[in-house]
Structure formats: structure tokens, C-alpha cells
Design brief:
alpha+beta, ATP hydrolysis activity, Heat Shock Protein 90, Ribosomal Protein S5, domain 2, five-stranded mixed sheet, DNA mismatch repair protein MutL, 30% helix, binds adenosine-5'-diphosphate, mismatched DNA binding, binds magnesium ion, ATP binding, DNA damage
């Protein structure tokens, strides 16, 4: 069991940023409206994620750390209608197999909270504690028992950079949640939880980018796209500013990348890339995000519809056209 968890951990837990991602997604799935993420030493020695979500009921705490224990799928057909971010039930078992974890959680229906300590997959402490509703997950010394994997980590500064980019993506994709992000005790990012997308873009990228944005909006049945795209004048030397979210999830997609870059092509020099921040709402059956455990790659059922929508909305916005979606 423990060996399997350690191996499984290799799929889910690659580096501190992937731990943060799993813990934050659990917090979001638990309905949190405020989430605090703290890291030290790039997250290698310390990651703490605190949320005000529904907590884990006392009797379910050790269960949540077992492989494939998930509370999020109740029926087979649910797989087609996944709205929660995590559904494989392997994050907590994987993370706890390769770190020293401590959890404090309280569900509103419980009188007391629970403190649970699990190190390298071994349960150490399970006790009642006083705690507010919600969950704190603390992960110490990632890969302390898998030195070969630890060697693959980069410097603390680089690892912190990965976490920071993820936190920015989160803030952009979830304006309705208040995020607080601390690195080595210093506040790096704080969003209010009731800001609009442009305010969040301003908070992350600053004024120079924010004032060169064009709003976009596109809607046909089963698909809506909205957000902001940058004027060609704020082109960048890399693709880090091509942000897109499918149903609230930050993903990578060669198809979207191609549609975006083709639309910008007439305006761009070679090796320059645009700023875009696009949010796609696609009917759950038309999109498959379950192609890789870290859930970054996405597949669309109707590729040409997504491609054309993206290409057209950018082309029209750059040409200064009013956006009138086709009626289908
Ligand atoms: P999954 O998210 O795929 O269900 P995880 O291993 O990430 O699997 O989590 C296991 C279970 O632990 C979840 O299904 C959920 O019931 C519970 N859980 C984990 N984190 C939280 C949290 N922050 N708040 C409430 N419940 C949580
Ligand atoms: Mg999860």
C-alpha cells in the first residue's frame, strides 16, 4: 500500500506547486470563499493551505488519506458531469506518502475539530482539537523519504516561482474567492473575492498591461467565452501571458494556442506572443479534462467550434469590430 502510494505520488506530486494545486483545488471543491496559501523555501520545507470551506467530518479524516477515497463521485455517470476539480481521490494519499503532513479540520456539524498527523503514509496522531470551521493542511519536508525525487527539485527560488505563477492563474480564474498568498512570511498576493477580472489583472500585471486591453465576449449555445485580450503593442517574448480557463480550470491546449496566435499573426512580429485572459464556459459533455492526472491538458469534442470562436473573437476585437455571434 505504502509503496503504491509512493509510486502514485509521482503522478500527482511532482513539485511543491503541484501540492499547492491539489490542496487549493480541494479547498475550492469544499466551497471555500477565502483561501490562504503560505510557503517557505519554495514550498519544499513548508506549505500551508487554510480554507473556510466545509471541513472534513471527524470520522472521515483518516479515510480521506486512503487511495481512491473520494467523496466527489457518487455514480458512474458523474464522470461525464464533473464540476469539482478533483475526483480521483489520490491527492491526499499521494502527498502524505512523501511528506510530513498535519491537518486540522472542522465540519460545521461537529462540535470539536480534529488534528491528524501523518508522515510518510504512517498515521501518527489523531486527536480532538478546538478549531474554526474549515481546513488547514500543512505539508512539511516534501520528498523527505524519497531522496531521488527530491534531487529533481530546482532551487527554492525557482520552485517558489512555479507556485507564484499558479497563484496568479488561480486569482485570475476565481475572482469570487479571496486569496492570500505568503512567501517566507511576506504577503505576495491578496484578492478581495469580489473584484472583477480587470481588477485582478491590474493587481497582478499592473497598469501598463491593464490599459492596453480589449474586452471580448462570445456566446452561442453550449459555449461562452469572455475576458480581455491585449493589444499587439504589449506583445511579449514568451507564452506565459496566454491565459485561458475552461470551466474555471487553468489548462493548456495546443488548439487554443494555435487559434490565438493565428488571429494575432497579422499584427505580430516573429517570436512575439500576446497577452490574453479568456474564460470559456463549455457544456461539461463537450470537454474532457481527464487526460492527465495533473489535469492541465484538455480535449474538446467539437474542436472546430472552439477554434473558430477563439479565432473570430480575437480577429474581430483586434479589427475593432463589434462582436456579434453567429446564430447557429
Ligand atoms: P479528491 O479531491 O480527488 O476527492 P483528495 O485526495 O484530493 O481526493 O481528497 C480526498 C477527500 O478529502 C476529498 O474527496 C474530500 O472529501 C476531502 N478533503 C480534502 N481536502 C479537503 C478540504 N480542504 N476541505 C474539505 N474536504 C477535503
Ligand atoms: Mg483533490
Amino acid at each position: 500500500q505504502n509503496t503504491i502510494d509512493k509510486i502514485a505520488a509521482g503522478e500527482v506530486v511532482e513539485r511543491p506547486a503541484s501540492v499547492v494545486k491539489e490542496l487549493v483545488e480541494n479547498a475550492i471543491d469544499a466551497g471555500a470563499t477565502a483561501i490562504t496559501v503560505e510557503i517557505k523555501e519554495g514550498g519544499i520545507s513548508f506549505i500551508r493551505v487554510t480554507d473556510n470551506g466545509g471541513g472534513i467530518p471527524k470520522e472521515q479524516v483518516p479515510l480521506a488519506f486512503l487511495r481512491h477515497a473520494t467523496s466527489k463521485i457518487t455514480q458512474a455517470e458523474d464522470l461525464l458531469q464533473i464540476t469539482s476539480l478533483g475526483f480521483r481521490g489520490e491527492a491526499l494519499s499521494s502527498i502524505s506518502a512523501v511528506s510530513q503532513m498535519e491537518v486540522i479540520t472542522k465540519a460545521p456539524e461537529d462540535f470539536m475539530g480534529v488534528r491528524y498527523v501523518i508522515e510518510g503514509g504512517q498515521e501518527k496522531v489523531l486527536e480532538d482539537v478546538g478549531a474554526p470551521n474549515g481546513t488547514t493542511m500543512l505539508v512539511r519536508n516534501l520528498f523527505f523519504n524519497t531522496p531521488a525525487r527530491k534531487k529533481f527539485l530546482k532551487t527554492a527560488m525557482t520552485e517558489a516561482g512555479y507556485v507564484s505563477s499558479y497563484m496568479e492563474q488561480l486569482a485570475l480564474s476565481h475572482h469570487n474567492i479571496s486569496f492570500k498568498y505568503m512567501v517566507n512570511g511576506q504577503l505576495r498576493l491578496h484578492t478581495s473575492g469580489n473584484a472583477n477580472l480587470k481588477d485582478v489583472i491590474y493587481g497582478i500585471y499592473g497598469r501598463d498591461i491593464t490599459r492596453e486591453l480589449l474586452p471580448v465576449q462570445y456566446e452561442v449555445s453550449g459555449l461562452s467565452v469572455s475576458g480581455f485580450i491585449g493589444k499587439p503593442s504589449i506583445a511579449r517574448g514568451n507564452r506565459n501571458f496566454e491565459n485561458y480557463y475552461i470551466n474555471g480550470r487553468y489548462v493548456k491546449s495546443k488548439l487554443l494556442m494555435k487559434a490565438i496566435e493565428e488571429a494575432y499573426k497579422p499584427y505580430m512580429m516573429q517570436h512575439k506572443y500576446p497577452f490574453v485572459c479568456l474564460q470559456y464556459d463549455i457544456h461539461g459533455e463537450d470537454v474532457d479534462v481527464n487526460v492527465h492526472p495533473t489535469k492541465m491538458e484538455v480535449r474538446f469534442k467539437n474542436q472546430s467550434a472552439i477554434y473558430n470562436a477563439t479565432y473570430d473573437l480575437i480577429t474581430d476585437a483586434l479589427a475593432g469590430k463589434e462582436i456579434i455571434p453567429e446564430v447557429s
